[in-house]
Structure formats: C-alpha cells, structure tokens
Design goal:
Helices cover 25% and strands 34% of the residues. By secondary structure, it is α+β, with helices and mostly antiparallel strands. The strands form 2 sheets. Strands 1, 3, 6, 8, 9, 10 and 11 form a 7-stranded antiparallel sheet that branches. The N and C termini lie far apart (85 Å).
Length: 237
C-alpha cells in the first residue's frame, strides 16, 4: 500500500546571532547552612584556695582585659598574706646567714660546702617567697579576655578550691561560621577565600563578609563532608 505525501516547502524560523566569547573562569556558588559560634570562650577557674570575698561583676556584663583588667572575683587573703609575711621573714634570716658565711669563707673561717649550703638555703627561701607572692596575686581574679560574662556560678562567702569554675567569658567580636562541605565541593575552596554569610538579624536577612580560616583535612565517614570555618567580623555585636 502506497501513502502519498505533499511537500509544502521549507519551514521558516526566527533566529538570532550571538557572539560567543571565551571566559577565563565560571563563577560557581555553593550554598550551605551553617552554625555561628564565638571565636573565643574563656572558662576561668580558681588557681588558689580561698573564700570568696567579693564578686563585683554580674552575668551579661561586658568585661575588659588589658593594662587595667576588670576584677571578676576577689578571694580572702588573710591566710595567703600570713604565709607571704612568714616567707619574707625567712628570706631575711637566710640572706643574713648566707652573707655571714660568705664573709667567713673569704677569711678562711668557713668551708666551701658551708657557703654553698647557706646559699642554697637562701635561694630556697626566696623561691618560697616568690610562690607565696604569686598565690597572693592570684587571689584577685581578673578578666583574661575582653567579652561578655555568660556564666558566673560563684557567690560571696563560697569557699573555692583550685580548679573550680568561677566565670565564663564569651568574646563575640568575631564569629566562626561552621559549615559542612561535601567532598565534591571542598576541593574548590582554599584558606583565605572570601565568602558571603546571610543571617537573620533583627527580623531581616543581613549579609556579612567572611573569610575561610580553616578547612578540615579529614572527611566525616558518615556524611562524607569536611568541616569548614569562616571567620566573620562582629564588631556591631
């Protein structure tokens, strides 16, 4: 059976001419959710034992480090001061003893061993004094970093032992954005790369500039992603 077809002629199409140019690179965008954390969180603990005499700060307060750091907690120094005074007296006695033995040694009235022993006793007493003065100084606990007090689990009258937590300070002047990047994309990232962070701030999306400051060299074996940290300036809080 034969089927006849009718040729209607060529069809017409509207076309345009585009000039194709080579590009050095193509911009690719990776969008990932992230978690923001402060760059520094300092947990201060007691270095010497003592009763809390005063806590002149409160939670949420801004504290400062530097030449005149904020005093966080003051411990009672009665026992520490007494120990320091005792060590000072011992240094005075041992120093006089050493000077007398040294004078006798120069005149032949004392042996070298006696002089060395007197010197060792004097140096030991001085070391004890230095240690007691350091303990006395550490009874006044000051802010090691500038930031906001987030935790303050001590009260006046409480007795502290070395190692007990006194205060936690959060420095959020810079933030770290933690992002998990897939193994397919992480190879395109490098330390120092600039990034854009979009965050919901006071009810609206706000864009911040960031810079990649860490790329983990290990993949998470369950998600096959690498941890990437982006540092963002947060001077506005």
């Amino acid at each position: 059976k034969k089927t006849e077809t009718t040729y209607e002629g060529p069809k017409l199409y509207n076309v345009g001419v585009v000039t194709v140019e080579a590009r050095d690179s193509v911009v690719d965008v990776i969008e990932q959710p992230g978690v923001a954390i402060p760059t520094r969180v300092a947990t201060i603990t007691a270095e010497v034992a003592g009763r809390v005499e005063s806590v002149p700060v409160s939670k949420g307060q801004m504290v400062y480090a530097g030449d005149e750091p904020t005093v966080l907690v003051t411990l009672n120094t009665d026992l520490l001061q007494a120990e320091c005074d005792r060590c000072k007296a011992e240094v005075t006695i041992k120093k006089l003893r050493y000077e007398r033995v040294e004078a006798l040694f120069t005149r032949g009235g004392a042996t070298e061993q006696e002089r060395d022993q007197a010197l060792a006793n004097y140096q030991t007493a001085q070391a004890h004094l230095d240690a007691s003065q350091a303990k006395l100084k550490r009874a006044i606990i000051v802010a090691p970093i500038t930031g906001i007090i987030d935790m303050l689990p001590v009260d006046e009258g409480e007795f502290l032992q070395p190692g007990m937590e006194i205060v936690q300070i959060v420095d959020n002047s810079k933030m770290k954005i933690i992002v998990e990047i897939s193994e397919r994309d992480v190879s395109f990232l490098a330390l120092g790369d600039l990034t854009k962070i979009v965050a919901r701030y006071r009810g609206q999306d706000t864009e911040f500039d960031g810079r990649i400051t860490f790329i983990s060299q290990l993949l998470d074996p369950t998600t096959f992603t690498s941890r990437v940290e982006i540092t963002v300036d947060n001077a506005e809080g």
